[in-house]
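INFO worker-7 received task bundle
INFO bundle size: 2
INFO processing item 0
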Amino acid sequence: MVTIKYYNGERLYFRPLEPGDEEPLRRWRNDPEIWRTLDRGYPVNEFREREYIEKLYKSTEDVALGIVVKEQHRLIGATGLRGMTGANRRASFGILIGDKEYQSHGFGTEATRLILRLAFEEYNLNRVELSVLADNTAAIRAYERAGFVREGVFRESYFRGGRYVDALQYAILRSEWLRAELEPAESADQVPRDRVA
């Protein structure tokens, strides 16, 4: 299989999702530990997952990408931007690190930062937003480390594990992202940080 690198980071890169990715994506989305953190909690079969992958690249307002670890060229998750519109220059962000071996090692934070670069530098967006379940503390830490700001709460929005859970609304603006990108350079004798592309 040919290695396609759509967007390159430090330890990982993004590539298009392919029909051959159906099995791990379906396995991850059906894992109870994972689907409890997602906005949908129903099972997905092979037919539905293949259909989902096939429809991904028909929309000009959505982009979905596989998250791949560089050293092993191993798919560990997926990420994307939904609802990109020219007029408002905004999108909704989602991410899934499905391979448990790579969870809690900073790959989610790196992938989040990398997709923000893609959103602001390549797609010229002004705002990237997300919604996260309030009890998903690992994801919340990763989003806040990447610069997302909490904007509000949707009280008791989801029913998970026999109880209602709040959903937190987060967003980051292009101006906030640019300021965060420049801060390390300003504190390091005005030397710009190396960018990974």
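INFO item 0 finished
INFO processing item 1
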Amino acid sequence: MLLAKKEKILEKLEEIYQGRESALNFNNPFEMLIATILSAQSTDNQVNKVTGRLFAKYPTPKKIAFLSKEDLAEEIKGCGLYKTKAANILSTVKLLLAEYDGQVPKSREELMKLPGVGRKTANVVLANAFGEPALGVDTHVFRVANRLGLAEGKTPLQVEEQLMLVIPQHKWKEAHHWLIWHGRLVCKARKPQCDICPVGDLCPSVSK
């Protein structure tokens, strides 16, 4: 797809979804980190229900660190893969306390040292908690970017790298949200609503 066509798609998405933010509720970088870890295999609404209860009882790494793996699993069991996530979160909060004085690090490299934190999670935290230019590629971004022809990647990293070439750096954080919300509201995984898609006339997948 020609660069000019990609830019038109992005301009239209920006026009429609400008101002949209993360659907996860958080008050600080630590809450953003934990919520993002919990969001894998879970809806944002479900994560918000779980974190609302969790942070009311255990608002800091130190308080969570006192929980057993079983107790934490019970607190977060509304989320998918909750037993694995409980183990990762406990290891993460202990590492934050031991190495970072209980603070969430501000670099991708340091974030990815935390258990349960991959590149996508690190990018989401960097963008949303710290306002850093980063482009997290979750399932929505991966699907929508490929369908719209903004990227042609077989892995999230390939899609991220290709998107960074067509989206100005200062818009990476915002564009992440444009693609997510378009994926949630229109370009859905199973039944994309191509008939009402605002960029359908530019999309290479509509005819397919």
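INFO item 1 finished
INFO post-check item 1: The longest helix spans residues 82-99.
INFO post-check item 1: The CA atoms of residues 50 and 56 lie 10 Å apart.
INFO worker-7 idle
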